[in-house]
Structures are given as structure tokens and as C-alpha cells.
Amino acid sequence: MLKIRLSRAGKRNMPFFRVVLTEHTSAAKHGYKEVLGFYNPISKEFKIKDLDAVKKYIGNGAQFSPRVEKLMKVNNIAI
Asked: What CATH number does residue 16 fall under?
């Protein structure tokens, strides 16, 4: 099953997350198939690069992680 979840990047004490598409059994940090967006928790910036791709993956059976689903709702991004 494919999941859309966060993958941590950035330096120590300066976190930065990528929104990635990955298999639910593989590591989010290295085993992702595609980068779909990003989230910066310091500036609270959340952006999805290609909303059509996210809709396509959700239509094909991918699921959001709980954190990504919450970020989508908070930022009023409808799927």
C-alpha cells in the first residue's frame, strides 16, 4: 500500500520535511518514489507542488499519514 507521508531533512535544530509518496513498509527517508511537496515547521509553511498528482495517487488507493492529513485540513487543501 502506498502512503503519502513526511520525510525529515534539514540540519540539526532546523527541521524541514518533504511530503513523499512511499511504500508503507519502506523507510520514508530513502525509499520514496516521488516528492510531492514540503513542510517547514519553523515558518509553518506547507505546500503541495502538484495537487493533480496527489489526487491521482489517492484515487489509485494511496493513503495519507495522520500528520499529512491534518496539515492538508489545516491549510484548506481539498482532495
From this structure: 3.30.1320.10
